[in-house]
Amino acid sequence: AELKPGSTKVLINALVNIKAQSGWLIVIAGHTDVTGSPEHNLELSRARAASVRDWMQRMGDISDSCFAVQGFGASQPVASNDTEAGRAANRRVDIRLVPEVGACVLPTAALDRNPLSHSAAFNF
Protein backbone atom coordinates (compact mmCIF):
# COMPACT_ATOMS: atom_id res chain seq x y z
CA ALA A 1 0.00 0.00 0.00
CA GLU A 2 1.26 3.46 -0.90
CA LEU A 3 0.87 6.66 1.10
CA LYS A 4 -1.21 9.29 -0.71
CA PRO A 5 0.42 12.58 -1.68
CA GLY A 6 -0.38 15.07 1.07
CA SER A 7 -0.55 12.45 3.81
CA THR A 8 3.03 13.13 4.85
CA LYS A 9 2.16 16.47 6.48
CA VAL A 10 -0.59 14.85 8.57
CA LEU A 11 1.71 12.00 9.58
CA ILE A 12 4.49 14.40 10.58
CA ASN A 13 2.07 16.25 12.86
CA ALA A 14 1.05 12.95 14.47
CA LEU A 15 4.68 11.85 14.75
CA VAL A 16 5.61 14.97 16.74
CA ASN A 17 3.13 13.98 19.46
CA ILE A 18 3.97 10.29 19.35
CA LYS A 19 7.75 10.11 19.08
CA ALA A 20 8.86 10.15 22.72
CA GLN A 21 5.95 8.56 24.55
CA SER A 22 7.41 5.80 26.68
CA GLY A 23 4.76 3.46 28.04
CA TRP A 24 2.38 4.11 25.16
CA LEU A 25 1.63 1.67 22.35
CA ILE A 26 1.02 3.15 18.89
CA VAL A 27 -1.92 1.17 17.51
CA ILE A 28 -2.25 1.55 13.73
CA ALA A 29 -5.45 0.11 12.23
CA GLY A 30 -6.10 -0.17 8.50
CA HIS A 31 -9.56 -0.20 6.91
CA THR A 32 -11.03 -0.66 3.42
CA ASP A 33 -14.30 -0.16 1.59
CA VAL A 34 -16.36 -3.18 0.49
CA THR A 35 -14.89 -3.37 -3.01
CA GLY A 36 -13.15 -6.72 -3.45
CA SER A 37 -13.25 -9.96 -1.51
CA PRO A 38 -13.17 -10.01 2.30
CA GLU A 39 -9.80 -11.80 2.18
CA HIS A 40 -8.30 -9.19 -0.15
CA ASN A 41 -9.68 -6.34 1.97
CA LEU A 42 -8.24 -7.82 5.15
CA GLU A 43 -4.82 -8.15 3.51
CA LEU A 44 -5.06 -4.62 2.05
CA SER A 45 -6.08 -3.10 5.39
CA ARG A 46 -3.08 -4.73 7.10
CA ALA A 47 -0.79 -3.49 4.31
CA ARG A 48 -2.12 0.07 4.75
CA ALA A 49 -1.43 -0.01 8.47
CA ALA A 50 2.02 -1.55 7.92
CA SER A 51 2.90 1.19 5.39
CA VAL A 52 2.12 3.87 7.97
CA ARG A 53 4.11 2.00 10.65
CA ASP A 54 7.08 1.59 8.30
CA TRP A 55 7.03 5.30 7.43
CA MET A 56 6.81 6.31 11.10
CA GLN A 57 9.69 3.99 11.99
CA ARG A 58 11.86 5.40 9.20
CA MET A 59 11.07 9.06 9.80
CA GLY A 60 10.83 9.01 13.59
CA ASP A 61 13.39 6.38 14.50
CA ILE A 62 10.73 4.66 16.61
CA SER A 63 11.33 1.14 17.92
CA ASP A 64 9.22 -1.76 16.69
CA SER A 65 8.18 -2.34 20.33
CA CYS A 66 6.16 0.88 20.10
CA PHE A 67 3.74 -0.44 17.45
CA ALA A 68 0.76 -2.74 17.04
CA VAL A 69 -0.58 -3.12 13.49
CA GLN A 70 -4.16 -4.22 12.84
CA GLY A 71 -6.23 -4.81 9.72
CA PHE A 72 -10.02 -4.74 9.82
CA GLY A 73 -10.90 -4.94 6.13
CA ALA A 74 -14.37 -3.50 5.52
CA SER A 75 -15.77 -4.52 8.93
CA GLN A 76 -15.72 -1.04 10.54
CA PRO A 77 -17.05 1.49 8.02
CA VAL A 78 -17.40 5.15 8.99
CA ALA A 79 -19.64 5.94 6.01
CA SER A 80 -21.98 4.24 3.57
CA ASN A 81 -20.32 2.10 0.92
CA ASP A 82 -23.13 3.03 -1.50
CA THR A 83 -21.35 6.17 -2.75
CA GLU A 84 -17.81 6.89 -3.93
CA ALA A 85 -17.42 9.52 -1.19
CA GLY A 86 -18.46 6.97 1.43
CA ARG A 87 -16.13 4.31 0.07
CA ALA A 88 -13.27 6.85 0.04
CA ALA A 89 -13.94 7.69 3.71
CA ASN A 90 -13.83 4.00 4.59
CA ARG A 91 -10.38 3.56 3.01
CA ARG A 92 -8.39 4.87 5.95
CA VAL A 93 -5.83 4.27 8.67
CA ASP A 94 -6.53 5.12 12.31
CA ILE A 95 -3.70 5.84 14.75
CA ARG A 96 -4.29 5.64 18.49
CA LEU A 97 -2.01 5.86 21.49
CA VAL A 98 -2.86 3.28 24.13
CA PRO A 99 -1.17 3.22 27.55
CA GLU A 100 0.61 -0.10 28.02
CA VAL A 101 3.24 -0.93 30.61
CA GLY A 102 6.49 -1.92 28.95
CA ALA A 103 5.56 -0.59 25.52
CA CYS A 104 7.90 1.73 23.66
CA VAL A 105 10.78 1.78 26.12
CA LEU A 106 12.90 4.85 25.38
CA PRO A 107 16.26 6.18 26.57
CA THR A 108 16.07 8.18 29.83
CA ALA A 109 16.52 11.56 28.09
CA ALA A 110 13.35 11.01 26.06
CA LEU A 111 11.24 10.39 29.16
CA ASP A 112 11.05 14.08 30.09
CA ARG A 113 8.00 14.68 27.88
CA ASN A 114 4.50 14.13 29.17
CA PRO A 115 2.43 11.69 27.11
CA LEU A 116 -0.52 13.17 25.26
CA SER A 117 -3.53 11.18 24.24
CA HIS A 118 -3.79 11.34 20.47
CA SER A 119 -6.07 9.77 17.92
CA ALA A 120 -6.25 10.40 14.21
CA ALA A 121 -7.72 8.95 11.04
CA PHE A 122 -6.12 9.21 7.62
CA ASN A 123 -7.44 8.26 4.19
CA PHE A 124 -4.96 6.34 2.02
Automatic annotation (TrEMBL):
It holds the Pfam family OmpA. Keywords: Membrane. The keyword Isomerase does not apply. It is found in: Cell outer membrane. GO terms for cellular component: cell outer membrane. Signal peptide: none annotated. CDD domains: OmpA_C-like. The keyword Membrane applies. It comes from the Bacteria. Residues 1-101 form the OmpA-like domain. PANTHER family: EXPORTED PROTEIN, STATOR ELEMENT OF FLAGELLAR MOTOR COMPLEX. This is OmpA/MotB domain-containing protein.
